[in-house]
Write a structure and sequence with these properties.
By secondary structure, the chain is an all-alpha fold. It is built from 11 helices and 2 strands; from the N terminus they run H-H-H-H-H-H-H-H-E-E-H-H-H. The chain folds into 2 domains: about 45-130, Cytochrome c-like domain (Cytochrome Bc1 Complex, Chain D, domain 2); about 140-240, Orthogonal Bundle (Cytochrome Bc1 Complex, Chain D, domain 2). It has helices at about 1-10, 10-30, 40-60, 65, 85-95, 120-130, 150-160, 160-165, 190-195, 210-225, 240-269, and strands at about 170-175, 180. The chain has a two-stranded antiparallel sheet. A hairpin with a 5-residue loop joins strand 1 and strand 2. The radius of gyration is 31 Å and the shape is elongated. The model has no long low-confidence stretch (mean pLDDT about 85).
């Protein structure tokens, strides 16, 4: 009996039991783990292909200013900021509005016809996203304006945007040759992306500062102006606010007063 008990306690028996336990555990894990669906595999492969195509587009059109790894460059005519972490929303705004690629260095990139297709812009965004997390292109539910509150959007716009873009969203001059562009005719998603990413001199209004629903409200307010919802009778004078009113009073009103004064003077003579 003592020899049998000793054999049961031998190190070899313990190793065999450990091996059998590990084998059983590995087999059970392999049998019970969730399998990757064909759709998920295909989506992953497509995203990888899009990122590779986006990298090719970036190297051919953007790397001269932003660096081959999008780390940014410093120079007189080839300076560009780092794009790591800016997200696909910034790419969609800058490239989708034609501001990038920038033809000539200037204090501000003007809007112009875009040079890439929507698919190419998407691929560029996927590549930039692969370099670091950043704001994404907005969901459709926040740019369809179905649940938007125009009055609340006007309140937010006047508080945060009107000092640069004018109370009627017509744009305005800034310092050192910069300007806040008119928001008339701008796509809803580009207005959302501008608030989210803060291009050029514009501050960033992230989702903690202005929520996605409030951004939708602001877009609805701008679109209401675009459709004439800010006209309350009479001539709009270009919807330039007090500047248009002052110009009208100075050129027409003062002119009429001078004409009346001359007429009265001649009549008295």
């Amino acid at each position: 009996m003592s020899k049998l008990a000793a054999s049961r306690r031998s190190p070899i028996a313990l190793i065999v039991l450990l091996f059998l336990g590990l084998t059983f555990t590995g087999t059970a894990y392999a049998a019970l783990q969730p399998s990757t669906s064909p759709d998920a595999t295909a989506a992953s492969a497509t995203a990888s292909d899009d990122a590779e195509e986006g990298k090719k587009l970036f190297l051919a059109n953007c790397a001269s200013c932003h660096g081959t790894n999008a780390e940014g460059k410093k120079g007189i005519n080839t300076a560009g900021p780092s794009l790591v972490g800016v997200g696909s929303a910034a790419v969609d705004f800058q490239v989708g509005t034609g501001r990038m690629p920038m033809a000539n260095p200037a204090v501000q990139a003007p809007e112009k016809p875009k040079v890439f297709t929507d698919k190419e812009i998407e691929q560029l965004g996927i590549f930039i996203d692969s370099l670091g997390p950043g704001p994404s292109v907005p969901d459709a539910q926040y740019i369809d304006l179905v649940n938007a509150d125009i009055a609340n959007g006007g309140k937010i716009f006047r508080t945060n945007c009107a000092m640069c873009h004018n109370s009627s969203a017509q744009g305005g001059a800034l310092t050192r040759g910069k300007y806040a562009p008119s928001l008339m005719g701008v796509e809803s998603k580009h207005i959302y992306e501008a608030m989210l990413t803060g291009p050029q001199s514009m501050p960033v209004f992230n989702d903690h500062t202005i929520t996605p629903q409030e951004k939708e409200d602001v877009i609805a307010f701008v679109k209401n102006i675009e459709e004439g919802g800010n006209d309350f009778g009479g001539h709009t004078l270009g919807s330039m606010g007090p500047a248009g009113d002052a110009l009208f009073i100075w050129t027409i009103g003062i002119g009429l007063l001078i004409a009346v004064a001359i007429w009265l003077g001649r009549k008295a003579a």
